Amino acid sequence: MNIKFIVNDYLIAWNLLFTKSITQELCNTKQKLWNTYKKEYNNSYNDKKIIIDDYKNFIPNNDIVYNALFEKEDFKIIKKEAEKLRMNSMKLWDKNIKEIDNLLHNIIRLNINDYNCFIINKEFNIIDAVNKDSLIVGLDNKNINKFLVDLLYKIIENEVEIEEEDNLNIKKAILEMAIKNEFATILNNRSCYKDGTESLARIKRQIYPYWLMYLGVPKEDMIKYIMRDKIAFEVNNFAYEKELININIEEFIEFIIRNKRYIIRTS
Q: Residues of 43-59 as b/e, b for ≥16 C-beta within 10 angstroms?
């Protein structure tokens, strides 16, 4: 999987128009534009997907609202910060490519699409999957490992599809174990298995023995992982599912769903 980190003026402007105002001056500018060009402002709402699908050639039907933003000093500062964030993100990705490849090949075991990652100012504090190969990212990357974990979690979440609404928590729990726990553990050189969504903690504990089998941990070594991650279970109470090491993350999710009445206890 390759990621192309991109800064696009129109997409930054779109987010300034239709997401939270990150400065008071921009808030005032939006209000003035709305009052003066309501029709053009509203019509711009539909531009987001068009920009992303053809970001190199996008030309708005009416650029009066965009141009008004481009002229603002605040916009120039925001774009400069986005460019800086883009360069830092590229460096972080390249520096950690070995660990990223390990995640994809040994933990996820899926072929992942190449992605366009549209960088906007970190003050937006968002990461949004727009389609099957594009993300909008406005996150601080000072915490390098957290940035990579959040970025890769969103990509993998976007790739793995689960149709049944009732099973979404199983999907979320397993993806957290893969990325926010195991991958983060590799990046940080310490266990991160206590991290993640509190409401999923119970499900994750119940899946954990099978997760170790999926990772290929031999039964005789499981106690080391129990000690590392502080997740206790009685190893001898679980039959070792040898086939789990030969499947990918989607198939593992399907395995847990098929057997959830035996694995996921509600009380």
A: ebeebbeebbeebeeee
